[in-house]
Each structure stands twice: as C-alpha cells, then as structure tokens.
Specification:
The chain is of the alpha+beta class. The protein has two helices and four strands, in the order ααββββ. 43% of the residues lie in helices and 25% in strands. A four-stranded antiparallel beta sheet has the order 1-2-3-4. The chain is rod-shaped, with a radius of gyration of 30 Å.
C-alpha cells in the first residue's frame, strides 16, 4: 500500500533561510546608502542656510554703507573693518559670520569698497574658521552713495 504524501502549503525552513540571506545581501547596502543620502541632505540644507545668511549679511552691510557718513568712515580707514556676528539658523545649528570691509585700491578716483563675507559652522566652538568646517564665502564691491 502506497502512502500519499500530503502536500504542504507554505515555505520550508530552507526557503526562509535562503530568502533572509538574499534580503540581507540587498538591504544592508541599501540602508548604508540611505544613511549616506540623509547625511548629504543635511549637509546640503546647512550650506543652503549658510548661503541665505551670507546674502543677508552682505545686504545688511550694503544698507549700512548707504549712509554717507558710514561709507566715508569705512573709505577713510586705512585698515579693513571686520565685524563678527553669531547667527542662528532657525532650529538648526549656530553659525558665525564675518564681514570685512576694505578700500578697493585698484580704483583710486572713486570711492569703492570691497566687502568680503564668510559664514561658517563653528564645529569646535572656538570662534575661528578652521579648515574642514563647512563654510560659504562671497565678495562684492560697493560704491559711494
């Protein structure tokens, strides 16, 4: 007498083990890529925020230099003027911004000031820009009002 084997529905232990190995081979690298992508996204948002703050610093400086007395004082100064400000990026990290105003010596007939601005994330909180810290910088010129 032959016994009929009952056909089982579902997976065997070997099927489950094989599937879990395949998933781990595929998922572990993809999780690594996802975490790297999130890190790059945060860094991109930080740089975008720093660019916004940099533009704001330059525009505030231009508004201040639109006052003739302030412009003349900066123009007559033989040394560059440097202002340092601590900026808060909304709910993000604090950054430091510097604005350096100096006389443009290439144009002697007209009053022309050079505005150099730098914004950086002070990771070690020493108040100085160190290599390796995320930063953005820009340079522009401003003429007498």
């Amino acid at each position: 007498m032959k016994h009929k084997r009952m056909k089982r529905n579902g997976l065997t232990l070997l099927d489950v083990a094989t599937a879990s190995m395949i998933f781990s081979v595929m998922l572990i690298p993809s999780l690594h890529l996802m975490s790297r992508s999130q890190k790059n996204s945060r860094l991109l948002q930080l740089h975008e925020s720093m660019l916004f703050e940099l533009d704001k610093l330059i525009e505030q400086t231009k508004v201040q230099l639109s006052e003739p007395a302030t412009f003349d004082q900066a123009w007559r100064s033989s040394f560059p003027t440097e202002n340092v400000a601590k900026l808060q990026l909304g709910d993000g990290p604090a950054v430091i911004g510097t604005v350096r105003i100096s006389r443009n010596t290439t144009v002697t007939t007209n009053g022309l000031l050079m505005i150099d601005a730098t914004v950086w994330h002070d990771e070690n909180r020493n108040g100085r820009f160190d290599s390796g810290e995320p930063h953005e910088s820009a340079r522009t010129e401003w003429a007498a009002p």
